[in-house]
Amino acid sequence: VRNPALEGGRIVYELAADLRLYDIASGDEQVVPITLASDFDQLREKWVDDPMQYLSSAHLDAEGERLVLTARGRVFVAPVGAGRIVRASNNDAARYRDVVFLPNGETLVGLSDESGEMEWVTLQANGTGEGRSITGDGTIQRRSGLVSPDGRWLAYDDNNADLWILDLQSGAQTLVSEDGEGFGGSRSWSPDSRWLAFGKAAANTFVQIVLYSVDSGASVRVTSDRVNSTSPGWGPNGEFLYFLSVRNLQSLVGSPWGSR
User: Of 42, 176, 191, 210, which cross-links 238 as Cys (Cβ 3.0–4.6 Å)?
Assistant: First the structure.
C-alpha cells in the first residue's frame, strides 16, 4: 500500500497498479475506475493475423488426439488433424497461462489472472459453461503445473522455487519443498498417482532425485549427492524410475608428483 490520503471519512491509496477507495464507516473497498481517452495505436483494436507467433504453451490430451493451445492469454482446443478449433476461454478480461488437459479430456486446468493474481482455475474443453476457481490465495507468481494420472493432484512451483501439490477436488495445497533450494529437470508422477519424483539441490549444490509420498507426506532422497541426477521419469508399471545423471568423473586436479 502506498500514498494513502484521507478525506471525508474515506481513504484513497495505491495498491499494485490500481487506485483503491476505502470507506471507514462501512468498511467497503473498491477499485477506482480510471479511463484515459486516447487515439494511440496501443489502445486501438488490432487483428492478429498469425496468432501462432504468440503461442505460449501447447499440450496434448491423454489420447493424443487434441491440443490445448494458449496464445496471447486466450485458450483454444484444436484437433491434431483437420477439424474445428474451439475457444475454451470466454472471459476477455482474464489472461490465461500454462493450460493443460485433465485425464478425462473434458476439463482443462491452468492459471488465470481474473482475480488480480495468478490463480489455478478449470475450464470446459468444449468452451461451454463457466470456469471454476480452485485457489484464491495468490501472493506470488505461480508456474506450470503437472497433473497426476488420476486427475486428483497438480504439482507446480512458484517464483520462490517452492514446490507445491494442489488437490484439484478440495483446493487444499501442500508445500513439498521450500527455501528456494531449486529443482533439477522435470517432475514426474508415478502411474498410481501416489508418488511425485523431482530433482532437488543438496547442500553441496549437486541435484538429487527425491520421491514424495502423497499418502504420508514424507520425502526421501533416492540418489547420491556426489553426482548430479535430474529429469526423473517412471516406467509404465511404476516399478522403475529412470533419470539423467552425470557420472563420467574427470578430475581437474593434477597429480602432486607431476606428470608421469
Answer: 191
